[in-house]
Amino acid sequence: MGRNCAIIVAAGKGTRMKTNINKQFLNLKDKPIIYYTLKAFYENESIDEIVLVLAKDEIEYCKKHVIQKYNLNKIKLIVEGGDTRQESVIKGLKAVEGCEVVLIHDGARPFVDKNIIEDGIKYTELYGACACGVKSKDTIKVKDKKGFSIHTPDRDTLFCVQTPQCFKYNLILESHKKALSENVEATDDTMIVERYNHKVYLYEGSYKNIKITTPDDLVIGEKMLDNL
Fold first, then answer.
1. Of 25, 198, 17, 172, which is closest to residue 93 (Cα–Cα)?
2. How far apart are alpha carbons 116 and 203 in whole angstroms?
3. What does the alpha-carbon distance between residue 10 and residue 214 come to, in Å, rounded to a whole number?
4. Residue pair 66/34 in contact by the 8 Å Cβ criterion
5. 47, burial (CB in 10 Å: exposed 0-12, middle 13-18, buried 19+)
6. Residues above pLDDT 70, as percent of the chain
7. Prediction pTM value
8. What is the CATH number of domain 4-226?
9. Where does the entry annotate site (Transition state stabilizer) (predicted)?
10. 3-class DSSP state for residue 166?
């Protein structure tokens, strides 16, 4: 059996949170958000190693105040991120060379659960690429540049993609290399493999698997921890 490796991408600044500190280091119940994210993968027996991608000026802080403090010694390496998420993912991929399955996850999604992680591995082994997510609860509108509605997609065909997004290692690495050589920009890893004609299987995530992006999300996160 090959290794299953998690890449936790946490190099972004998160400007929508409107704080001077990276959102991953804001506290939920007296522990930083990134702690809960790392803990979910750290405690999962199907994950062989974890690579954390951080901004250069936050690496030492994270080592001292998160990894060492909470004894998260399954984390193989901390990698300095790039200027974009895409660059950060590529750096993370290079750090897990030799993995069979790689799970790419947002550092600010602390409520990912065991089933989501293990289903990601299972469906990657079957299909080569997959991503978790949920059906849209809302009707979605497509609007024009003037702000008018021009189309209403069928809600049953819409899927709100979350992370982890999971891939056979060679597939995602080669796709990213091609995108880099062709100056293709993408904010999502599934977009990269789809561009090179590989289908992505979409499996059920959880409405609890939220990304902490705004101050309101912090309030929701606190309430969710109260109910665990």
1. 172
2. 9
3. 16
4. yes
5. buried
6. 95
7. 0.94
8. 3.90.550.10
9. 16, 23
10. strand
Amino acid sitting at position 65: H
Strands (E), the chain: 4-10, 27-28, 31-32, 49-54, 75-80, 101-106, 129-135, 142-143, 149-151, 159-168, 201-204
Q: 54: helix, coil or strand? A: strand
Q: What are the CA-CA distances from residue 228 to residues 43, 91, 105, 221, 225 (Å)?
A: 16, 34, 21, 11, 5
Structure tokens at 4: 């299953």
Say if residues 37 and 112 touch (Cβ distance below 8 Å). yes
The alpha carbon of 188 is separated from its chain's Cα centroid by a whole number of angstroms, namely 9
**How do strand 4-10 and strand 31-32 relate by DSSP bridges?**
unpaired
* Segment 154-184, tens digit of pLDDT: 999 999 999 999 999 999 999 999 998 999 9
> DSSP 3-state assignment of 183?
coil
* CB-side neighbour CA atoms (13 Å) of 101: 26
3-state secondary structure of 43: coil
Q: Which residue in the block uniquely carries the two structure tokens 């590529």?
A: 90
Identify whether the C-beta of residue 219 lies closer than 8 Å to the C-beta of residue 26: no
Residue 88 has φ and ψ, to the nearest 5°, of: -65, -40
Contact 92, 176 (CB under 8 A): no
Q: Decide if 105 contacts 37 (C-beta within 8 A).
A: yes
Spatial contact of 120 and 164, defined as CB atoms under 8 Å apart: yes
* Count of residues making up the chain: 228
